Queue: 2 jobs
Job 1
Amino acid sequence: MQRTWSKSGSEATGGVYGPAAASEPPDTVPVVAGALHDPVDHVLTTTRAVRRRLDLDRPVDPALVRECLTVALQAPTGGNNQGWHFVVVTDSSTRSAIADVFRRGAVAYAERRDKPSPPRRRRTEAERAARHRVMASAGYLFEHLHRVPVLVIPCLEGRAEAGTLVDQATAFGSILPAVWSFMLAARARGLGTSWTTVHLEAEVETAALLGIPWETVTQVALVPVAHTVGVDFKPAARRPLDEVVHWDRW
């Protein structure tokens, strides 16, 4: 399927196409709704975690998934080792079994008392409302994961939890950019995704279901993939840039 950017910024054949590129340098492009000048910025700023708006009844062409994975393999990887693997699950009975593991993992994670606490800060009313919406949509995915037509489990050769902080950072830094590239490519093709990890509470059980050699391969996420109901996603509200950027020192 050929896709081209239209001069008017319209959408074409199932994908998401933003405005035509402007003449100013990319680092001057304002990343705010309605002011994006570059189609790359459009995809980068409108790739949302999609849960409620996954089309659970529409099949996903395996060729689309392969396209997205081909893009993902161009991501950077430590030492160019390319120790990544992607388990793509479409069989309905296997998806149901993984969804059961996911739900048990979510419950186990919620009940754990040794989870690291996020740093405390005062949240605005809008942030609290957004948090409520996120939790509600996560609950929706919890209930409907078995109906999502494609589940992708990215994996990394070796056990990533072993070693020092620099070892772990190198390991995860060698797979996470590829997964994000996959999610961006999916967005550009009219597919929705979200990053989930709670099934890792039962990683060994998932490995047994899928034949993943747990002792030598680490699962890093579970990414639901489906066509979206509509493609009108927008940039999300975020903290002001000056609250999180530190020039020259903290």
Job 2
Amino acid sequence: MKEQGFYIDYHVWAHKKVLQQLPDLTAEDWNKQLGGSFPTIKALYQHIMEADYRWLQRWNGVPFAEIPAGMTVDGYASLQNLWLPLLEEQVAVAKRRLAVNGEEPVHFITGKGLHVTQPFWQTLYQVVNHGTYHRGQVTNMLRMLDKPAVGTDIFLFFRENSNT
């Protein structure tokens, strides 16, 4: 299971690649209604950050975690200050769990109240898949704003991290 640690490394690498595209966004860009399941870049990143926070809490034994009051996306700086440290903690917890026992069950409660138990490695795949899905939405929104997009394909990750 330990070798599956590259999944969480990829997750963080890809998020950081997209984040590099965001520092120059204006408040108008962050709040522009662009459509989709989360209509603004701000709302989409709020969802992404909250999901990563909840999964981290689940991995730490908290089946359902409320979002802290101060965990609010209001632009690039808030992602730098709130989300990046959370992602680094995700890496540490994921790698520790994989090294010990990736089959160890994670018990959690979904937002709809469903009680679920799954092996840790399956929840890790969920986190990475969720991030990939929403990074695609962010990329689409950036293109709609005539902003450059960046490639986050996993083969690019492997090329940049050939020792992974």
